[in-house]
Amino acid sequence: MSVFSGWRAAFRIARRDALRSKGRSALVVTMIALPVLGVTAADLTYRSALPTKAEELTADLGSADARFTDPGMGPVRLQQMPDGFTWQPPKDSPDPLPGDERKPVDVPASFPEGSRFLTEQSVPASVTTRHGVTDTQITELRVGDPMLRGRVELTDGAFPQTEDEIAATDAFIEASGLSIGDRVTVRGPQLGYTITGAVELPADLRDESLFAAPGAVIAPWRKAADRDKEILPPQATGRKWLVQGPAGAGVTWQDVLAANEGGVVVMSRQVALNPPPDSEVPMAADMYVWDDGGAAMTAAAVTVAAMAMLEIVLLAGPAFAVGARRSRRQLGLVGSCGGSRSQVRAVVLAGGAVLGGVGAVVGVGAGFGLTALFRPMIEDYTGNRFGELTVRPWEILGIAVLGLVTGVLAALAPAIVAGRQPVLESLTGRRGTRRSSRVLPVIGVIALGIGVALAVVGGVSGEINLVAGGSVLAELGVLGCIPVIVGFLGRLGRRLPLTPRIALRDAARNRGRTAPAVAAVMAAVAGSIAIATYTSSHAAEQAYDHIPNLTPGTAALMSTGVEEKADLPRMRAAVEQNYPVGGGKADIARVWAGSDCSVYYEEEDGCGTLEIVKPTGKGHSCPLQGKGAKELALRLSADEHKRLMNSPACMDADYTMVAFGTDDSKIVVGDAALLDSYVKLDDPAAAKALAAGTPVLLNSAYAKNSEITLKAVHTYNDRDKKNRAQHPGEARTTTDRLKVYVAPDSYAATPGIRVIMPQKTADRLGLHTEDYGSLYKLNRNPTDAERQTVSAAIEQAGHSAYVMTADEMSRSEDDTILLILALFAGVVTLGAAAITTGLSKADAEADLTTLSAVGAPPGVRRSLSGFQCLVVALTGVLLGTVAGIVPAVALRLTDLREALAGMRDNPMESAYTPIVMPWETIGLLALVVPVLAGLLAAALTSSRLTLARRAG
């Protein structure tokens, strides 16, 4: 018999065996098809969502041939790359003239003869919404022109035709609460427009903007600005021209070079798709080619694919092993009829090829179907429309081959075992005596130790490759130890009830199917725990380094008016009526000496200053500054460094928390209400001190003998006529010793405030004060609608104030990542446990029949399945948790190394790099998932068995 005929017979036997054992075959096909489905769908989605060069050009140009832009350099020669993004003046060109001396560029003169064009210009604006006002961008562009197809698409209504009409993107309409037919008012010039249509940008579905006809917004806004002596936002000066060249000619590279001579930059579709050789590009010689990281991405993709294949092999291998055992009589007949061991192995390998091929085909087909079905949802998630469903045939074929190879690899170990099986033992059904390898656990322990050592060394030295390699080696070492660990489980059931004792002994006796399932669970859980531990630790580090802008649960209304008096009463009423104010409110005033140059946002002669002179000596100077600071910082533990940084002496040493708008001195004028609503200081003595005219000091490092030194420079410039008239005379400097009430040290970190000064004290010292804003205690964070309503009130009151709320350390993204990791590991755990339980039932059918025959209660069968599932899931989760900690700790050691290097440069920097265990994720995986797996297995198992014939 030839080789081909032998394999043909093997495939025929494998096909019939697969059809005879439909349940096991479907299980293996599903295990192989699911990863193939995922990879196929991911490949199709990635290739389709990743725009081609032509699609990128359509997103920029629509159906136009080119975009001409004036970069603002004047009519001077430029150089550009064919992509139209990169440009520069030639190296030998003279320095450009100042902006006010540059001559205008006649951009339309550079168009190819016979071209048609559209103008485009954008401006940021504040517009009304159903709830209030919001910031957006208005683009003047005739979006109804066919030249814009592919870039702007109409989804509802009609394109704007007149100057009082406007189109809005779907995202803007949804966020603003408006609809077609509603009016939108542009704040500032108070121009009103009717929304006539809803549009979308296929390349950016989340864009929230408006489109108006050319000349409908910017020109009247500029006219109103000139009339009212206001300033139009500078972004409105940029203009672009979309050009459609002569029919069939497009815009060539020679047209681009000619436009460059006049100071115009061009993005041409024809040039970008068919770029000229570098010899014809003057700028090419000056370009540097950057490494795009493609090699690293390829390595990461190969690693992920290898791990996915390992998961499938670990899960599918026991299924083939059980199938080979159930077919051992058939394999024995092959041997008794003269079949060689290689032919017996071929039958099992053919089974892997058959099921792997079916799984690959099913997975690829399902991947195509699901991608097409969920395409709209994927487009909404990614924020851009697919141009076409992009299929790379060789990639799809490679994915299918991967599924086929995975099936063959999963059947490889069972095939080797079946080939070594004696013919007589196969025909009689005896399994013989099997001993576990004594070498494998030793190798596993050695690999585990070396892997942990490499990971730690890599973390300390900052070598990420060592961390990765050591972590993988450690995980492989644990894999080598799993058979011994599973065998040890059988000894733990001696004093347990019947079903858990049988489950543990069955797992130990059948390590060939238990160990790979445990390993698969361990591999999935290890990766999830590693990422979850690192994420939790990094989040804790960020929370430690976070500097709040306000005290928790508060909001601040602050005035920004410099030329005009802010209408604070009206704005306060808007906040109090619309924000969830909890009853606590404090009005504050700012205080300064001499001319306040910050009002004019520029440095001038004759500026007054006001500062608190910090005493020197122990308790006042921060030990982390000055001589010996580096040595001290490196000796301190993370907790000691943290306590020292939070001490009053170091609180303001490394940064100034300006927070809600106070100046560097952080002195505000207020009363006792500020203590309750913002500082959260419940101290009657402090309130009594303020009422008596005594300032309250929140940072004790500035006090000496309960006094502070206040230094004020009363200097006035010519521009500050108002304050100069009130305080004539020569410039003077005053230094006052003020008795203060010193708050406890825990209040030194209050954002934005160092001293609360009573109004009477400021008047006595000859300082200037001005009503500045209010601080509120909130019951909750305001909603978007409430924010827009308050913003509208501020706009109507002159746009001379702003409202800010206390920022919170958001863990939403981290929590989402942890949840996804837990769900992924949970699904793999449930799948592996279910697969093992099903194989156990199929493999131990004779034992279960014997139990029923000797009078075991019906519930034993169900509870046994539940405990078998629980054993696999719990063992894999615990081992995976231990294995996952290794790379997480190693990566945190790398972070610690970098933090210590930063501390050597600046002792004030924190080297706090905690290792925080994700106990919620671990608890979910270690308790909820195994128990759920056991309950599901018990619930889905029939408690009664029909004896069709004598077992065996």
Would you kindly provide a written description of the structure presented here, covering whatever features stand out?
The protein is α+β, with helices and mostly antiparallel strands and 952 residues long. The chain has 3 domains: 64-277, no CATH class; 447-546 and 811-952, no CATH class; 547-805, no CATH class. The protein is 50% helix and 14% strand. The protein contains 30 helices and 23 strands. The strands form 4 sheets. Strands 1, 4, 5, 6, 7, 8, 9, 10, 11 and 12 form a 10-stranded mixed sheet that branches. A hairpin with a 4-residue loop joins strand 4 and strand 5. It is globular, with a radius of gyration of 37 Å. The two termini are 34 Å apart. Residues 288-304 have low confidence and may be disordered.
Quick overview:
The protein contains 30 helices and 23 strands.
SSE topology sketch:
Blueprint (H helix, E strand, L loop, with lengths): L2 H18 L1 H28 L3 H9 L4 E4 L9 E2 L6 E2 L27 E13 L4 E8 L12 E5 L7 E5 H7 L6 E4 L4 E10 L8 E4 L5 H11 L10 E6 L8 H9 L3 E4 H5 L20 H33 L1 H9 L4 H33 L1 H8 L10 H28 L2 H6 L10 H23 L2 H26 L8 H12 L1 H35 L8 E6 L8 H11 L2 E12 L16 E5 L15 H7 L2 H8 L2 H4 L15 E3 L2 H8 L4 H8 L4 E2 L9 E8 L6 H6 L5 E8 L1 E2 L12 E3 L1 H6 L3 E11 L5 H13 L4 E5 L6 H32 L1 H9 L5 H47 L13 H21 L13
Parallel strand pairs: 5-10, 7-9, 16-21, 17-20
Antiparallel strand pairs: 1-11, 1-12, 2-3, 4-5, 4-11, 6-9, 7-10, 8-9, 13-22, 13-23, 14-16, 14-22, 15-18, 17-21, 18-19
